[in-house]
Amino acid sequence: MNPMKLKATPMDTGVEFKETRLDNGLTVIAEVNPAARSVAVGYFVKTGSRDERPEESGVSHFLEHMLFKGTPTRDAIEINLEFDRMGAQSNAFTTEENTVYHGAVLPEFGPRLLELLTDMMRPALRQEDFDTEKQVILEEIALYADRPQFMAFDWARARYFRGHSLGNSVLGTAQSVGALTREQMADYHARRYSPANMVLALAGQLDWEATLEQVRVLTHPWRPVSAGREYAPFQPQPGEFRQPYPKATQSYLVHLAPGFAAQDERRYAASVLASILGAEGNSRLHWALVDSGLVESVNASHDENDGVGLFYIFAQTDPANEERVVEVLRRELERLEREGVRPEEVERAKNKIATGIVFAGETPMSRLFNLGLSYVYTGRYETLSEMARKYEALTVADVNALLEARPFSQGFLYRLVPPEADS
Amino acid sequence: MNPMKLKATPMDTGVEFKETRLDNGLTVIAEVNPAARSVAVGYFVKTGSRDERPEESGVSHFLEHMLFKGTPTRDAIEINLEFDRMGAQSNAFTTEENTVYHGAVLPEFGPRLLELLTDMMRPALRQEDFDTEKQVILEEIALYADRPQFMAFDWARARYFRGHSLGNSVLGTAQSVGALTREQMADYHARRYSPANMVLALAGQLDWEATLEQVRVLTHPWRPVSAGREYAPFQPQPGEFRQPYPKATQSYLVHLAPGFAAQDERRYAASVLASILGAEGNSRLHWALVDSGLVESVNASHDENDGVGLFYIFAQTDPANEERVVEVLRRELERLEREGVRPEEVERAKNKIATGIVFAGETPMSRLFNLGLSYVYTGRYETLSEMARKYEALTVADVNALLEARPFSQGFLYRLVPPEADS
User: Fold this and answer.
1) Closest CA to A308 of A164, A148, A202
2) Which stretches in chain B have pLDDT values below 50?
3) What positions does the domain Peptidase M16 C-terminal occupy (chains A, B) (predicted)?
């Protein structure tokens, strides 16, 4: 009895999807929206820490920085100025499995932004820039070591995925980055930034034919090399680990449990389940832990990776409450697996997620991420309406079906705690 | 010679502006956009720390929290659940002169969101909730005391605006909040949350006539009281103050200088000037301080208040570099006043700001802020196109005219530094 069903809002009116693969192997996709007031452009490179050899740990992220340092015809200042002249909103990020470069501008600057980003994909990697930037990366690594809230998740993943490349650190270590040479980076770039391993995505107001012609000319010299990814089998093992850390003043709890891959259609139901369990502001864990004053914050979400997925829960608490928080967390997870979810919980989570999808469709920049990542993982495009319909169709039974395998009972609990609390 | 002039992009196509004042004094305004996929609703209350008596310092911000704690017919949980059921993205904030409550939802939930926010404007202010929330606020005050980066700006304002209510702290102090009674808060609410002192703004997909009828019914019991604001004259005095602070590990420099009020048309040129001086990523201060490695970050902006404006510059630096940073900062400000700005700098800043305006027009939620705040300050509405045209028309002479009064030479420099650096 929920009166708030999603209307079939005409979310994709006038929007047209285009895709092609160039002779050099580069995939180009676009969601053309003539009513948009801007255009977003992004290169999605299917490479990240999971694709690194042990001796090159951290190279994906370091290389991401180097792409802003210069090309054969531009230095770092010229790249910075060119973004600035267009008034571009731009950035880049590196994860375990993707490196993404993106920007948004007024439609009239679209071709210039495309030219700049394309030029950056073939960086000069000058030795002097490499040496300077290495210091910046080493400082970043040192800085994060002071942030247990960040490291807790990284170290929990490393233990959960032990022996699997999805446990690799994005930042790398002071040792691995310190020892890295320019030649190793150039070799990694040559292997991983093959046009066949990249998707160029665009969203918003643009001329598809003109864009395609421009990309053909700009990337004409690019040569494809084969750039695979290893999909080692992964078998999660339940367990726990408690680590005292001098820089921790709070206790950080990370619970990881098997979920569903980016290619698995059950990922929609998994997002709803994670929302019911631990969405910030209102969820089972919110009421059990935040509202009761046991923790400052808690949240659960579902993380879809290439071939593997996981549920994760993060809680930060006063060390004095640590054991009580773990107890409540275990009780809630057990109750969830035993009793399943209720219809009104599913409806509420579906509304929340569907609204989020609409908000994420309001600007070309936010559409770009959906578009590019969905394509990298599944090789296909999903309209906003299709996504909304998939959530709309979910039932309580779909969500409860995920619980039959008792995923949370197979979870791994990682605790990063102040040394004092370890006595 | 800049080829990147703004096209007359049809930014406001299909958008219609509506406004009315109800008999109880409440102003209702809307930017109706039938093509939008969501609707944003906000109450803009023209009250903040500058409107507080000394003994009620912090009440505006504390009251903002209390509006989420309950109305005569809803408790805190019910308010939270109701936002959640709609999948609303909502929040609130308090500044020196405004308290704003806002949310965005799918169009079909618009009336429900409007009902909820309107109900919240008449809070129950239950004693038990008041006592509990007071502890939360006191913890927040203690928390901010650990964040010199935040306090530096607050304390710099207090000194710059000494004797003027714009120097009042939004958070208040542990003493003032600790001593505050429920009755004082109820009195403040009765004085300041008069419908005549509030603007209800909406943006996105909505039915204006139906909205208006709903608001009339919901706010029928509201009675206007006169709620003025004192506009004491303000005469900035140049000077500086250096304060050692045990919790500072870096040196924080805040430079404040006279600017232009929210009602002054020269504010557009002032934004361009601030961008040229200190926009993050690319500006005179960026190249002089960040690129040279002297500071971690620096930025300048122009802050428009009701009747008074100011330029502010914020830099964070290693204590060892403090004197050198101050020297470079003074040199750059002096050079700016002596030589003025260059045409290409003005063009670049205009492009950047114009692009920002377009991005801010892409979602109903971001339009809402522009719409509501512009109306609170000037009593009128400005379309995106009008704003873009005003920037487009700016010349080098307009920007240089602001420098004739040598505003930065009348600036006040506040330094918050580690105690060790004070020897």
Assistant:
1) A164
2) 1-9, 421-423
3) 180-352
